[in-house]
Amino acid sequence: MNRTPIIAGNWKMYKGGAAGVELARDVVRACGDLAGVTVVLSPPFTALAAVVHAVAGSRVEVAGQNLHPKAEGAFTGEVSAPMLLDAGCKWVIIGHSERRQLFGETDQGVREKTAAAMAAGLRPIVCVGETLAEREAGRTLEVVSRQLDAFVSVLAERPGFGTIAYEPVWAIGTGKVAGPEQAQEVHQALRQRLSSTDAKLAHVTHILYGGSVKPDNASGLLSCPDVDGALVGGASLDAGSFAKIVEASPSRV
Ligand code: 13P
């Protein structure tokens, strides 16, 4: 199956304003015209429109980092799927572990946000992943399966439009990357789970790996058969490092 790799940079709460525009321009210069890979940048909300402007005319696409499931309303501090689309986003990250752990997001909330994004025509990157305690208790597959089950029927409404990111919580920002075998085992299990809903869904859904992806470990992870790209945190804040990860995508080497 030819799933064009997706390399997404999650800038988290870094690089707003002018610094974000500069980084986006540097990414465009470094890898904005590469074919055979989809490059996505996810800046903070305040930098979205400026980053969309900075990448215009290149192949680089832009994602929000979160959304509210309602289209509009009295929800101070929130941003909706139509607003992200209006700002020029094509993608949105949903259910990142930082949102689940620090902001109380539940499986049900992740499902609602995924449904809202899909309905609006915004491509969701929905995150799943186990904590260190869950891995050590041998519960990794149980946890990621439960998280996936919450939104799989939403993805099945438009197979291939939504993307999953497996981000083991213990590997995020820690420098402890999952080895290629560890990543492949979980990605394969997730794909099997997708196939129990719908064989085509399993075939066309991208499953990205996230958690301490760096230029020196990217090619090992990205060459796993069920790893279809990466969701990159820290290394996406440096255009040179991010470009090296983009260049490590299998279709690029
Ligand atoms: P790091 O690459 O900094 O570990 O972050 C991963 C992540 O959370 C991407 O969403």
Descriptive report:
The chain is an alpha/beta fold. The protein has a single domain, classed as TIM Barrel (Alpha-Beta Barrel). It is 44% helix and 14% strand. The chain has eleven helices and eight strands. The chain has helices spanning 17-31, 48-55, 81-86, 97-102, 107-120, 132-136, 140-155, 180-197, 199-204, 215-222, 239-247, and strands spanning 6-10, 38-42, 61-64, 91-94, 123-128, 163-166, 207-210, 229-232. The chain has an eight-stranded parallel beta barrel with strand order 1-2-3-4-5-6-7-8, surrounded by six helices. Helix 10 (215-222) links the parallel strand 7 (207-210) and strand 8 (229-232). Helix 1 (17-31) packs parallel to helix 2, helix 1 (17-31) packs parallel to helix 11 and helix 5 (107-120) packs parallel to helix 7. The longest helix is centred in the last third of the chain and has 18 residues, at 180-197. The mean pLDDT is 96. Bound molecules: 1,3-dihydroxyacetonephosphate (13P). Residues 10, 96, 167, 172-173, 210-213, 231-235 line the site of 1,3-dihydroxyacetonephosphate (13P).
Ions, cofactors and other bound molecules = 1,3-dihydroxyacetonephosphate
Strand order of the largest sheet: 1-2-3-4-5-6-7-8
Classified in CATH, the superfamily is Aldolase class I
Q: Major β-sheet, in short?
A: 8 strands, parallel, barrel
β-strand percent reads 5-15%
**Computed structural class:** alpha/beta
Shape: globular
Whole-number mean pLDDT: 96
